[in-house]
Each structure stands twice: as C-alpha cells, then as structure tokens.
Amino acid sequence: MKGFAMLGIGKTGWIEKERPKCGPLDAIVKPIALAPCTSDVHTVWEGAIGDRHNMILGHEATGEIVEVGELVKDFKVGDRVLVPAITPDWNSLEAQAGFAMHSGGMLAGWKFSNFKDGVFAEYFHVNDADGNLALIPEGVDPVVATMLSDMAPTGLQSAELANIQLGDEVLVIGIGPVGLMAVAGANLKGASRIYAVGTRPKCVEAAKFYGATDIINYKEGPIEDQVLELTNGKGVDRILIAGGNVDTFQGAVKALKAGGIISNVNYLGKGEFIKIPRVEWGVGMGHKTITGGLMLGGRLRMEKLGMLVQTGKLDLSKLITHRFNGLEKVEEALMLMKDKPKDLIKPVVIVAEDLMD
Length: 357
Ligand code: NDP
Ligand code: ZN
Fold this sequence. Notes:
Elements: E1 2-8, E2 11-16, E3 27-35, H1 38-45, E4 55-56, E5 60-68, E6 80-83, H2 93-96, E7 124-126, H3 129-132, E8 134-135, H4 151-161, E9 170-173, H5 177-188, E10 194-197, H6 201-210, E11 214-216, H7 223-230, E12 236-241, H8 248-255, E13 256-264, E14 289-292, H9 299-310, E15 320-325, H10 330-339, E16 346-350
Parallel strand pairs: 9-10, 9-12, 10-11, 12-13, 13-14, 15-16
Antiparallel strand pairs: 1-2, 1-4, 3-5, 3-7, 3-16, 5-6, 6-8
Helix pairs in contact: 4-5, 5-6, 7-8
Bound molecules: NADPH dihydro-nicotinamide-adenine-dinucleotide phosphate and zinc ion.
NADPH dihydro-nicotinamide-adenine-dinucleotide phosphate binds at residues 37-39, 42, 150, 154, 173-179, 197-200, 203, 218, 242-244, 248, 265-267, 294-295, 340.
C-alpha cells in the first residue's frame, strides 16, 4: 500500500509499505476522510517527537473497516467509524488510574504517527477496536466527522479541565481549530463572557460563531493588559490555552483571578521552563491552578462527542475551510497546515469516492 510519510526531520514523501496486520483485538481501516494537524507539522519540521524514518503521518481520520480480529465483538467489516487520534491500551494501569491517554508511559496513548504508522495511507491499523472505535452516528457527515478525531476532543477537554462554572468569564488564548473548540467547550459549559485571542479573520469570525463575546489581538499589546482593561482590573475566572508558547503562562497568571484555573492543551515546543510570576501567583498562596493534558481517546468519548454533533449541540463544519479530493492530496493539505495562510482554519482530504465534491 502507499502512504505519505515522514522520511526524517524536515523531510516527507510517498512510500510503499505492507498493509498492516490485524491482531485478534484489532481492526484494519481504510480512510473515508483525513485531516492534517498542526501536530504533524511539529513532528516533521520541528522534530517534536524526535527523528522518525519512513513513518506514515496523520492521526485524524474517519474510515471504513476492512478487517477485524477474531476477538472483536462490536464491529464488523463495512462499518463506518470515528477514529480517535489517541488509542489507549484500556487494560493498562494508567487507564485504570483514569489517565488512559498515558497508557504505557507519558503521552504514549498517542500511537498513530508516533510509535506506529499513521492514517495517511490506503489502510491503517487500530489497536483494541472495541475500546477505541465508534460508529459514525446516523446523520453525521463522515467528512466533517474527521474533526472528532482530535480538534473537538482536545479543545473541549481544555474547558473540562478548567472545570468551568455557569457564568464564568473565560479567556481562550489561541483560536486555531483547537482554540475554536475550546471556545465551543466554554460555551457548552455555561461561560458568560468569552474573550478569544487571535488574529486570522476566518478564525475570528468562527470564534464569534462558537460563542466568543470579545476578541483580543495579541499583536496589539500584552494579553493580560487587554484582559484587565476589559474586566475593570478583575481578571477572568478561567483561562484555556490553545496557542502561544512558554511565555504565555506569565500573562495568563496575571490575567487570572485568585482561585482560577489555567488549562493548557497547546504543544510547548521550545524553552526549558514555564515561568510563573511570583507576586501574581499570590506569592504562592493565590489558589491559582495550572493544568494541562493530552486529549482523551477511546470509544465512550467518541460516542459522546458524536452525540453532541448528531443533536446539533456542536457544529464542526465551521472548522473546515479547505476540501481536497483523493488520498494523494494529503501532501498539499499538510503543506497548507504548515504555511497557515490567512484564510485557513482546517483542511480535509476526502478519500471515499462517493463523498468527493
Ligand atoms: P493554530 O496554529 O491553527 O492556532 C494557534 C492560535 O494561537 C492562533 O489563533 C494564533 O493566532 C494564536 N497565537 C499564535 N501565537 C500567539 C501568541 N504569541 N499569543 C497568543 N496567541 C497566539 O493551531 P491549532 O489550533 O491547530 O493547534 C493548537 C495547538 O494545540 C498546537 O500546538 C497543537 O500542536 C496542539 N494540539 C494539542 C493536542 C492535545 O491533545 N493536547 C492535540 C492537537 C493539537 P493567529 O490568529 O494570529 O494565527
Ligand atoms: Zn491532530
């Protein structure tokens, strides 16, 4: 089969590989639709997970099952499925402790395009099919549903980790696709004012659609100054971080009320330390929590998010700005993700012929 791979740091290309083998609990899936991720860009061009040779990229997909292992109970050949970017080992001790995304070691529930070949191929392998796959709910567009692999679970999780309360004022830093889902999550959790930080016009428009009440341009001055001005010096109750860098936390701690929570889902690629400003952290006694996490994978999570889409509570279509037809287009879509033109939020590549535009 052919797949689009990382050949080494900074290098990509098409390669031929054997179709993956199906273990007794596993499934082999052919893609219906695929999406490149900012994380693929970090992987290839920043060497975020170290060097990888001839590793097929991609972890965002919907697909159709072409083979199941003899111990798989709930899925069969021909089923159209949601595929989470994170596919934990559900019998691991980490999963039993409630952190399945870290099964086998920190961040090790992330297998596609990390420890094994990813989804940008004619076929891909899914471990523990019963534990990790979910049927695409009736009425949900299988192309748009690619946003359930990673964008929705990651962004929404930031709102969950921050334990947003009804009426909270929430600051969302970064409104790429992940941050937009953080805005949507804050809105679903009952936030009142939602301050969203970003500049790309398409993202700003989408942020307003998902519930942002105020837009902050980080290029026009420190975020914390703008937040403190908008809140009459009080700051916000919760901060969700889906953009920026290690320095973003300093301003965030300053913009947060005592007792508030900062939750990060941004990938921090550079810098040795995250600095916490001593005085604004209440000289160590401000009850300001800083947390962060990798998305939760697995079937239950996928089924619940699928229900949010099916019932119209979450509209993922606003994330998709570019559509391509044919597997070979993943290359172009990934380059788009790397270059981030102003009109981009997220591209998708449609592989199933019956769904092509
Ligand atoms: P994008 O690059 O599309 O979005 C980044 C956002 O951050 C943009 O809105 C950008 O603004 C804004 N931004 C950039 N620089 C700053 C700054 N200095 N201060 C404040 N805001 C800034 O990324 P994605 O939405 O695709 O992904 C966001 C992050 O989430 C990535 O690091 C990705 O790797 C990570 N991720 C994490 C996962 C997890 O499980 N935890 C899973 C998937 C992704 P502008 O409008 O100007 O571009
Ligand atoms: Zn991703």
